[in-house]
Structure formats: C-alpha cells, structure tokens
UniProtKB/TrEMBL annotation:
PROSITE patterns assigned: HTH_LYSR
Name of protein: Probable hydrogen peroxide-inducible genes activator
GO cellular component, one term: protein-DNA complex
Domain of life: Bacteria
SUPFAM superfamilies: Winged helix' DNA-binding domain
GO molecular function, one term: DNA-binding transcription factor activity
Function of the molecule: Required for the induction the katG gene for catalase. Involved in the response to hydrogen peroxide.
Record's keyword terms, sorted: Activator, DNA-binding, Transcription, Transcription regulation
InterPro entries: LysR_HTH_N, WH-like_DNA-bd_sf, WH_DNA-bd_sf
PANTHER family per record: HCA OPERON TRANSCRIPTIONAL ACTIVATOR HCAR, TRANSCRIPTIONAL DUAL REGULATOR HCAR-RELATED
Protein family according to the UniProt entry: Belongs to the LysR transcriptional regulatory family.
C-alpha cells in the first residue's frame, strides 16, 4: 500500500466539508480528479470511506476511524516540514561579532559561551580591530 500525504489531505478535506465539489475547489483540483483519488484510497484501504448520494456525503465507520489518524499524520508532516525548513535556514546562517580589542578581549570568552549554549547557529565568527570601530563585514 502506497498512501501519499496528498491522499490524506484530500480525504481530510472531503471529510471535513462533506462535499466533493467544495472540497475540490478548496484543494484547487477538479471534482472528478478528487473523486478518483478518493476511490483509489478506498481501494488501497479495502474499505469505503464515504457514503455518497446525489445530495449528501457522509463518513462510513471506516472513514470516521481514519479521520483522526489522518489529521494527526498531516499535523506531524507539517511539523516535520517546519523542522526541516528551520534546520536548512540555520545550516547556512553565520553570525559575525565585531569588537575592539581593548573592550572585546575580556568579553570574547563570555560571548562564545553564550553563543554555544543558546544560539542554534552552527557557525559564528569574530572580527577584531585595533581601532575604535571594527571594520564592516
């Protein structure tokens, strides 16, 4: 069985709206394409998920059983996407701290310790200057 995140998103949208046309509009796909994907999911799960009539759509017992799990999986997937995105952003982040040697020499160990303990940035550097103002980096 090969169920995709997209399939779960389609199922959850139909289950929440209980209307194939409105769900298709919300998902920006055609209603026949959505119906086909739901039928494929039902075939893979070997259970009908919806009772369809000309005017109504209702969840079957199997659909009602699947819904909270599908919602949970979509939430977990969204969290995973955020975590990967945050890791990718932090992976390329670099912080450069500029300081004057007369003032910064005593502060440098404390700055390094705080960055190591509190900043999720993998790279940082220090630029020191003998003058009053460090050069722009």
């Amino acid at each position: 069985m090969d169920v995709h995140v997209r399939d779960l998103r389609y199922f959850v949208t139909v289950a929440e709206l209980l209307h194939f046309t409105r769900a298709a509009e919300a998902l920006f796909i055609s209603q026949p394409a959505l119906s086909k994907q739901i039928r494929t999911l039902e075939t893979q799960l070997r259970a009908p998920l919806f009772v369809r009539t000309k005017r109504t759509v209702e969840l079957t017992a199997a659909g009602a059983a699947l819904l909270p799990h599908a919602q949970h999986m979509l939430a977990v997937w969204a969290d995973a996407e955020q975590a990967v995105g945050a890791a990718a952003v932090n992976q390329d982040a670099t912080l450069v701290v500029g300081f004057s040697t007369s003032v910064g020499r005593g502060l440098l160990p404390a700055i390094r310790a705080r960055l190591a303990n509190h900043a999720p940035m993998p790279k940082y550097g220090c630029a020191k200057s003998l003058g009053a103002t460090p050069p722009a980096v």
